[in-house]
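hey can u run this one w/ 2-hydroxyethylsulfonic acid bound, need the structure tokens asap thx
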Amino acid sequence: MIAGKIAVVTGASSGIGAAAARALAGAGFELWLGARRLDRLREVGEPLGAHALELDVRDAGSVEAFASRLPAAVHLLVNNAGGALGLDRVEVARDEDWIGMWEANVLGVMRVTRALLPALRASGDGHVINLGSTAGFETYVGGAGYTGSKHALKALTRTLRQELVGEPIRVTEVAPGMVETEFSLVRFFGDEERAKSVYRGMQPLTAEDIADCIAWVATRPSHVNIDEIVVRPRDQATSTMVHRREPAKPQT
Ligand code: 8X3
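ok here u go:
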């Protein structure tokens, strides 16, 4: 059981972020949560005794304001905020979708990490866990905006690991495959039918499955750096090779 250690989780109002908050609270961390939807964030945070602060990682000013309200020493940063927008082929890609994904998944992680590094350093035992994806090392039709951003996040994470080696700060990427959260609903702009069809006939991971990995990574002894974890449903071998007991509707 961890005691007296402080964890910050971004995008903690739902899905993997909220589940990670619950798992880390269970492990004994004191929590500071950030998300755009403050009402939902408070609902997640209240039973955990967590601090809930508004945070939009796509906005540099919001990141600065968030960081300025955190304690001077932070032991764990979980960069979870991010997601996918659309599944369009490159020939019809929409600038606003790509900008949204890259702002959240890449620039957002950079901004929050940059802002919190002094506090992570001040803890004397810091840890950055970035939520990557199997999309960080695979590609699929229509996925370039998202897979590109997660490839970039992998590069950022590996670079950070090199830049911090020798300091008491660990760096980890947790890379999930198919997890049923609001991920697909957001990707398909609220189209529930399309979002559901992503998981039709197969058993996806849950947010709790990933939170379990995050809590495990975060509770290894300080000298143990889990560099990367790839976790997929048993039914999924690659981004496109998925065993279904009933066929999915076409995604494009
Ligand atoms: C989510 C995995 O396959 O939808 O990060 O890109 S996938």
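Strands lie at 6-10, 30-35, 51-54, 76-79, 126-131, 169-176, 228-231. anyway lmk if its weird
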